[in-house]
């Protein structure tokens, strides 16, 4: 494996095309972008402009149709599936638009899940407890997702994304549909984590969220404008 480490994640001329019936949808067009250690990037653009697809590329959840994605210097298109899974798990944490919490598990168990293959139960539980405290939910550990508000579910999803100490947090539509106070508390938490060295990439329509970012890119029809 050749390692050209510069940025945590580097996209080089990434184009992504989804097949659609007889045609195709060009979701991303020739994107070149670096995510550095203490970056705080807001990805903005209209619905369908390619924000979620870009986040999936940054997180190496999908292989681009054209171009290259480097994570910690490794070309994610070249390394094997097993190495990719492990590299991705160490490097990025995802907060999905729909949270994707497991409904049958408690909030605490949801946060622990990504750590269980690697650490003993009690150690994973301790770390999950610390993170639940960090996101202001130590009084909600035994609630199941269905018993939590949207903002609380999002905070559980943030805690889960952080449990393996990623270098980059990727958050899709962060704070969508949240009340102002909850949104502000989530933004404060991300500012704090960013100050401690976590790179943050958020896809958002929210002006307030944009204002917290150190830089912004706008997508239109899959291209940076
Ligand atoms: N799995 C898929 N198969 C086919 N087309 C897709 C797929 N995912 C996304 N697309 C298309 O790719 C384009 C970009 O979608 P994407 O979800 O990245 O946009 P977005 O900016 O995140 O939108 P939103 O703000 O509504 O979440 C859209 O035209 C969308 O319909």
UniProtKB/TrEMBL annotation:
Cellular component per GO, a single term: plasma membrane
Q: Which PROSITE patterns does this chain map to?
A: ABC_TRANSPORTER_1, ABC_TRANSPORTER_2
Q: Name one GO molecular function term.
A: ATP hydrolysis activity
Keyword Transport in the entry? The reply is yes
SUPFAM superfamilies under this entry? P-loop containing nucleoside triphosphate hydrolases
Residue span, ABC transporter domain: 9-225
Q: Which domain of life is it from?
A: Bacteria
Record key words, sorted:
ATP-binding, Nucleotide-binding, Transport
Record Pfam families: ABC_tran
Which PANTHER family does the entry link to?
ABC TRANSPORTER ABCH.1, IMPORT ATP-BINDING PROTEIN
Its recorded name reads ABC transporter ATP-binding protein
Q: State the organism of origin.
A: Biomaibacter acetigenes
């Amino acid at each position: 494996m050749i390692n050209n480490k510069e940025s945590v994640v580097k996209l080089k001329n990434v184009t992504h095309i989804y097949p659609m019936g007889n045609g195709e949808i060009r979701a991303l067009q020739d994107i070149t972008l670096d995510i550095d250690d203490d970056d705080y990037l807001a990805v903005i653009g209209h619905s369908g402009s390619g924000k979620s697809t870009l986040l999936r590329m940054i997180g190496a959840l999908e292989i681009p149709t054209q171009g290259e994605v480097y994570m910690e210097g490794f070309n994610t298109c070249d390394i094997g599936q097993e190495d990719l899974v492990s590299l991705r798990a160490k490097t990025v944490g995802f907060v999905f638009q729909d949270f994707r919490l497991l409904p049958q598990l408690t909030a605490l168990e949801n946060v622990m899940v990504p750590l269980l293959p690697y650490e003993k139960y009690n150690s994973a539980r301790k770390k999950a407890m610390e993170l639940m405290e960090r996101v202001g939910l130590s009084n909600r550990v035994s609630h199941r997702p269905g018993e939590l508000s949207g903002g609380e579910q999002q905070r559980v999803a943030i805690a889960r994304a952080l449990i393996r100490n990623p270098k980059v947090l990727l958050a899709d539509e962060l704070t969508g549909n949240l009340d102002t106070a909850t949104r502000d508390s989530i933004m404060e938490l991300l500012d704090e984590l960013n100050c401690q060295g976590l790179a943050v990439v958020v896809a958002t329509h929210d002006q307030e969220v944009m204002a917290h970012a150190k830089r912004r890119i706008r997508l239109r029809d899959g291209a940076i404008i």
